[in-house]
Amino acid sequence: MPRAKTLALLALAFAPGGTAFAAAATAAEGVEKKAHSLFQIGPLPVTNSMVTSWVVALVLIAIIRIAVGRPKLRPSGGQIIVENLVQGVLDLTAPIVGSRVAKATFPLLIGLFTFILIQNWSGLFPGVGTVMMRDHATGRWEEFVRPGNADLNMTFALAVVAFVAWLYFIIRYAGFRAIFQDLFGNKAERSEVPFLLYLFLYVIFFAVGIIEIISIIFRPISLSFRLFGNVFGGENLMHSMSAISRWGLPIPFYFLEVLIGLVQALVFTLLVSVYIGLICNHGDGHAEAHGSHGEPDGAASAHPPAAPVAKHS
Q: Within a 10 A sphere around the Cβ of 282, how many other Cβ atoms?
């Protein structure tokens, strides 16, 4: 361990969001922005946020496996809940990303939504923020268990994964020509604009494309800081309010954090959907007008026309 630390309190106390002790220990200075290293695996430090993320991911996988079990035609209660979640996310994102890539992007989007949602709510679970340890070097009490999304490293990693997936989907389903046209192409109709103005618009749209590329580069930063800021701010709010609350648990702020956790998971997922749909969702309306309903190229030909019905005299 890089620093000598002592696990000084096993006070789970089962008060969600932090006990008065945990809040009093950190309320004066707030929750530290930097996650603390618990131990190292070779050169890699394992922080309290990483451990929480691993535990949440394993518990989430186990709960879904237990709830669904072996899928049945007559679903159980757990299977109904999971199927409603799956169908709800698909119905929400399909119109945004486009019907052509809806199923391909679905595993990414539902994974982001579910993981971020539970990570956002993990700070409200019993034990998170209540188990403290003392740093002998500084004498400061530190959280032994810290929400994953209260660490900027976690939110930035989620944003990088989303960015790499976005790059794959637009190249796979739109192609370089469509990407170039979307960024730098002249969007004006040649028949509706004078020739000289039409040529000048090439310069304008090229400059706009440069600005768009800069905004694309900053998307991972905006995604990560938005999510981190809301979760980290909520953690500080819960600690501060717990310190001055007579019962140690600020009920109104607890439910406010539940709502904020849901909203931020939706915002992150929908923004990634919008980024994909801005390039991949072009032409769906044209395809539907021709009866292909947004199917990939060649998919329409896979369904041969029905044989004509013979007429009886």
A: 15
pLDDT tens profile 176-233: 988 998 888 888 887 888 888 888 888 999 999 999 999 999 999 999 999 998 888 8
Is 302 within the bounds of a domain? no
DSSP element (H, E) containing 46: strand 44-47
In a domain, 294, yes or no: no
Measured CA to CA, the distance from residue 96 to residue 266 in angstroms comes to 13
Structure tokens at 15: 């008060």
Selection from 216, 226, 232 nearest residue 268 by Cα: 226
Distance CA 313, CA 310 (A): 10
Residues 44 and 218: their CA atoms lie apart, in Å, by 27
Residue 295 domain flag: no
Residue 141 pairs in a beta bridge with 134
0.70 exceeded by pTM: yes
Q: Judge whether 293 lies within some domain.
A: no
Give the angle subtended at the CA of 119 by the CAs of 115 and 125, to the nearest 5°.
Answer: 135
Instruction: Identify any residues that bridge with 305 across adjacent strands, giving them in sequence order.
Output: none
Boundaries of domain holding 194:
5-286
